[in-house]
Write a structure and sequence with these properties.
Elements lengths: L2 H9 L9 E5 L6 E6 L4 E6 L10 H13 L6 E5 L2 E5 L4 E2 L2 H5 L4 H14 L13 H14 L5 H18 L5 E3 L8 E3 L4 E3 L6 E3 L1 H11 L4 H12 L5 H28 L6 H20 L2
Antiparallel strand pairs: 1-2, 2-3, 3-5, 4-5, 6-8, 7-10, 8-9
Helix pairs in contact: 5-6, 5-9, 6-9, 7-9, 9-10
Length: 293
């Protein structure tokens, strides 16, 4: 859909009161987002269809968003139809990686993640997905091969590493994970934090979110130790640390391969090649640490 057609579709939604203004919101690397203002207030409109290559199915995102709002974590869904979701606008600032790692902020972030894991399932309705990072890695490798990506040969090697990490990361507990804990998915309104963007939400190991939170936001080893002790409310055993480290590697590997696929499929104006290189370097460093401990 062209941008003019998309804007026409947004303007035609039946929920607006009076004239509206529509402006793009920058920062999203999976979806296009717009800020809409009418006579009653401000709203965020998320535009996007299913993206099977990334395991993104909008019925699942919508159900998770509604459940997260009911659990008190996320803005309200005000309207939804094929290709468009209208959300309550929160006057806030988006966290940065430095913010997430701030000693005063990290406990608040972790409490929000724990609440997602603990409280969202009680409000979830209808079919629910499992987000299994090791399946995603294998599927990305096949996609890169099928699409004749320049990363195809490397992807086969990475898929093999993913299978090794799957063995090392078990046994697994299951929670309802957000599964995309980039700093940009946390909002601070000055009084409380909000968790947004449930594209990849689904039942998963808690270690995936914890590993993703650490690796996506540059947490130190000491912060990772604190993260595990605080989440599990117990001293960190060597076994837990080993399984967590394997899952952190898997989180970085998934982000790398997500970007490899996005390089050849996404129409969003974003430097996916640079993002691939950055995440691949992070993954290689984490894998070296894992294999040398």
């Amino acid at each position: 859909m062209s941008q003019s057609d998309l804007l026409h579709k947004i303007r035609a939604l039946p929920i607006w009161q009076g004239d509206i203004t529509v402006a793009p919101l920058k920062g999203g690397i999976t979806n296009e987002n717009y800020l809409v203002e009418d006579s009653a207030g401000k709203y965020v409109v998320r535009a996007g269809d299913d993206i099977p290559l990334h395991q993104v199915l909008r019925f699942n995102e919508l159900a998770a968003s509604r459940a997260a709002h009911a659990a008190g974590l996320s803005p309200a869904v005000l309207h939804a139809e094929v290709g468009l979701t209208v959300l309550e606008f929160i006057e806030s600032r988006t966290l940065t990686e430095k913010d997430v790692g701030d000693p005063a902020m990290l406990p608040r972030v972790l409490e929000l993640v724990k609440s997602c894991h603990r409280d969202v399932p009680g409000h979830l309705r209808g079919p629910a997905l499992v987000f299994w990072v090791f399946h995603v890695i294998r599927d990305y490798a096949a996609t890169l091969r099928d699409m004749d990506s320049s990363h195809a040969a490397l992807a086969l090697e990475l898929a093999g590493i993913g299978s090794m990490l799957e063995q090392e990361a078990g046994p697994f507990d299951i929670v309802f994970g957000h599964n995309d804990l980039l700093c940009g998915n946390f909002l601070d309104d000055g009084e409380r934090l909000w968790l947004i963007d449930f594209d990849y939400a689904g039942f998963d190991s808690p270690l995936f979110d914890l590993g993703g939170l650490a690796s996506n936001n540059g947490l130190s080893q000491a912060q990772e130790q604190w993260l595990l002790e605080s989440y599990f409310e117990a001293p960190v055993t060597d076994d837990l640390l080993h399984r967590y480290s394997a899952m952190k590697c898997a989180s970085l590997l998934r982000e790398t391969m997500w970007s490899m696929v996005s390089e050849i499929t996404s129409e969003i104006d974003f430097d996916y090649a640079a993002y691939t290189a950055s995440n691949l370097a992070r993954f290689r460093a984490a894998l070296d640490d894992f294999q040398n401990t």
